[in-house]
Design goal:
It is built from 16 helices and no strands. It is mainly α and 374 residues long. Helix 7 packs across helix 11. The longest helix has 37 residues.
Length: 374
């Protein structure tokens, strides 16, 4: 969608109004976000601007989603506003406390992630965002297969990467005389730094997956999903997951980040990723300027490339903000129908997904001969 000056002015003014700089303004914005999609003053401003320059807004090749944002029920609103902050606080806070009391970081990875996945799977059944996403689309077997395959491969390749990284970290530490990582910081502060560093790597690898043709072949598996639910977080081709997932840990380890920090980074990525793909109502307001959460990521799964080629951050959205790829329309919810408009016949089976990048011309030809989607 191409926006001319009148619309750009509207977007800039909206950004100013929904990003207050003092605590009182933040409280007002938060309550407004809970009550609707964005502050009432923005809607008033929109109507004024539209009366002045509506002719300046031009949409190109952008089918409209149903107008307006969905009104949430009481239970949905509670889940939407508190669910993610509560989940991430309990999992990360609990892990930090457990590690501080001597628990094995590797054991905590398994326990915390398993519990978080269970809670998300049950919650989706109770408070689904879309009922249609709660029904199988013939994808469960493929998603389970990819999850198990990726877990097995990551355990082997991930270990090999960490060995190589440990050697590099030792060499770097010897060269500079000490570790570059602030090991004396509290674990929560170290996690925050680790997220920023790792997300820079993930952002660029993810963005290249969308912009470099041969890399898109592997990433297309993830975007072939026709619905979003917690298990979609593992719907990756193994080569894709290795490039995006495993390598983002490398700079943290090279700089000297210890096992507790890497464990926390693993847990945060897994829990955030599952919640990011969950079929739950989510409205986190100003936190959408920090975390690459569900509201942003659902747009990343849009069928329309000019919408999906945004929001590349895995856990944080800060690099998207910096590089201009953050996308969160305030006038409508993300589309319920997702997937790839350009590849409507992408193979959906487990083995077919694994083979797709290596028979790409056939995959493209099969879709080009299909009737265009509505």
């Amino acid at each position: 969608m191409r926006l001319f000056p009148g619309a750009e002015l509207r977007e800039n003014l909206e950004l100013y109004l929904i990003a207050p700089t003092n605590s009182a303004g933040l409280a007002v914005a938060w309550s407004s976000v809970v009550a609707g999609c964005y502050p009432r003053c923005v809607m008033t401003l929109n109507r004024s601007l539209e009366s002045i320059g509506s002719a300046e807004v031009v949409e190109i090749d952008s089918p409209r989603s149903p107008a307006g944002c969905r009104t949430l029920s009481g239970v949905e609103r509670v889940v939407a506003v508190t669910g993610f902050p509560l989940m991430i606080s309990v999992t990360i806070g609990g892990t930090i406390v457990a590690i501080g009391r001597g628990s094995d970081p590797n054991a905590m990875i398994v326990i915390v992630i398993a519990l978080a996945y269970f809670v998300l799977a049950v919650s989706e059944r109770i408070v689904p965002w879309h009922k249609s996403w709660g029904r199988s689309h013939g994808d469960v077997r493929t998603d389970i297969g990819l999850a198990l395959t990726n877990a097995a491969i990551s355990s082997v390749l991930g270990a090999a990467v960490l060995v190589a990284v440990a050697l590099a970290a030792a060499a770097l530490s010897e060269a500079v005389g000490s570790t570059l990582w602030p090991t004396d910081w509290p674990l929560l502060a170290q996690l925050a730094l680790a997220l920023v560093v790792a997300e820079f790597v993930e952002y660029w690898f993810h963005r290249m997956m969308h912009e470099v043709p041969w890399m898109w072949r592997f990433h297309a598996t993830h975007h072939s999903a026709q619905r979003l639910y917690w298990l979609n977080a593992a719907r990756f081709h193994p080569i894709d997951l290795f490039l995006i997932g495993s390598l983002k840990m490398a700079p943290v380890a090279v700089l000297g980040g210890g096992l507790p920090v890497l464990a926390l980074l693993n847990i945060f990525s897994a829990v955030h990723g599952a919640y990011q793909h969950s079929n739950l109502p989510v409205r986190i307001g100003p936190l959408n300027w920090i975390f690459s959460m569900t509201e942003l990521h659902r747009w990343h799964h849009s069928k329309l490339m000019h919408e999906s080629n945004h929001n590349y951050g895995g856990n944080l959205i800060v690099w998207d903000v910096l590089f201009g790829t953050r996308w969160l329309p305030e006038d409508r919810d993300p589309p319920e129908e997702i997937g790839m408009e350009s590849l409507p016949q992408f193979p959906m089976g487990f083995w077919a997904n694994l083979a797709a990048p290596f028979r790409w011309k056939s995959v493209v030809a099969e879709s080009s001969g299909a009737a265009p989607s509505a």
